[in-house]
Amino acid sequence: MRARSMAGPEPQTQTQSDAAAHLGELSRRLGNSYAMLRSIIRRSAESATSVESFAWHLEGRLDVIGRIMLAAMRGPDVSFDLCRLIETELSDQHAGGGGDTWSLNGPPVTMNSAGAEVLGLLFYELVTNSIEHGILGAEDVGELQVTWRVEQGADGELLHLDWIERGAPATSAREGFGSMVLEGMLRYQLDAEATREFGPEGVRISLSVPMRSLVQDDAGPALA
């Protein structure tokens, strides 16, 4: 009679184990990104003023998430640079006259894909709104200054970012997709706070984001 083997399955090699862990992490990230895509499509439809507006803005928002999803697929340790996120939106939308119209100043800040998706969407909305209604769409008028810093808070480090447009009057825009990102996604997914100030000299949008929300394991599904 042949003896029954009591041995268990062969142990995985380190390479196999790493690959399995990477696939599991990638699956989780893609699931979260898919949930965000569904939210973007639904809320874009709710805030659109026309079919053309819906199609135009939806394409731009999906491009933001698509770029980040593709980058995240390279490996579990991929991170995203804050300055690069802002530069990408300004350059892709041909905002103003480049360095003559806008300036970016702050220390290096990196984040995970969940943080990059939310902040990338926010910067897309801010650039788009400025081109349509603010100084980035005006000729030889005003400037955009984006500055950020990291400070120690009571519960850990905080990223403080100021988006300041000067040189053209600003009024409060209607509540649309950008407002949902500012008041919903930022708070729900990143535990962040945001304020908006409009006046005769321009607009100022200030963010305060816990750094732990940007560097910890990717957050849960997007706000539905």
Order of helices and strands: HHEHEEHEEHEEH
Round the Cα radius of gyration to an integer and report it: 21 Å
CATH superfamily label: Histidine kinase-like ATPase, C-terminal domain
Beta-strand level of the residues, as a percent range?
Answer: 15-25%
Catalytic activity: ATP + protein L-histidine = ADP + protein N-phospho-L-histidine
EC number: 2.7.13.3
Domain Signal transduction histidine kinase HWE region: 25-108
GO molecular function, one term: protein histidine kinase activity
Architecture overview:
Its EC number is 2.7.13.3. Keywords: ATP-binding, Kinase, Nucleotide-binding, Phosphoprotein, Transferase. Residues 25-108 form the Signal transduction histidine kinase HWE region domain. Pfam families: HWE_HK. This is histidine kinase. By secondary structure, the protein is α+β, with helices and mostly antiparallel strands. The chain has a single domain (17-215), classed as Heat Shock Protein 90, CATH 3.30.565.10. It has 6 helices and 7 strands, in the order ααβαββαββαββα. The protein has helices spanning 14-47, 51-72, 82-92, 113-133, 177-190, 211-215, and strands at 80-81, 102-105, 110-111, 143-153, 156-166, 193-199, 202-210. A 5-stranded mixed β-sheet has the order 2-4-5-7-6. Strands 1-3 form a two-stranded antiparallel sheet. Strand 4 (143-153) and strand 5 form a beta hairpin. The chain is globular, with a radius of gyration of 21 Å.
